Amino acid sequence: MLLVGGFVLFTGVLVAIGAIMPTAKDAGVVFGPLIFSMFVPFYAISLIVSDPGALIVAVFTFFPLTAPVTAMLRNGLGTLEPWEAGIVIAELFVLGVVVLRVAVHLFRYGSIAYSAKLDPRAVLGRRRPVTVGK
């Protein structure tokens, strides 16, 4: 469930960034740090192994962009409590669904205006027209 929740979250974030940016070159500037944030827990693996109760490990466990990898590492080491796993899974799925909905909304308008960067605040402020039934 951690893997699927993390996949949903990162898919939504990457689709949203892809919808906002007009070219892959522009998106690469944002994709790099985002993907790096996913791998930060691997650089802190010695801390995760030696002191799973450390504050930074708790931050990595519950911060959405580092949570999937940190929680899976802690689960593999047997240091992830069931209540922590439940919170992380719920957080990833809820945030993943929200981000996917925003990404779809951005993609609808981003595919229309593909020659320029979108202003997310302007796009998210738009509402769909209400149609009255027959």
UniProtKB/TrEMBL annotation:
Protein's UniProt keywords contain Transmembrane: yes
Membrane-spanning residues: 28-48, 55-73, 85-107
Segments forming domain ABC-2 type transporter transmembrane: 2-103
Record GO cellular component, one term: membrane
Membrane topology of this protein: Multi-pass membrane protein
Compartments where located: Membrane
Organism domain of life: Bacteria
Pfam family, one: ABC2_membrane_3
Name of the featured protein: ABC-2 type transporter transmembrane domain-containing protein
Source organism of the structure: Kocuria dechangensis
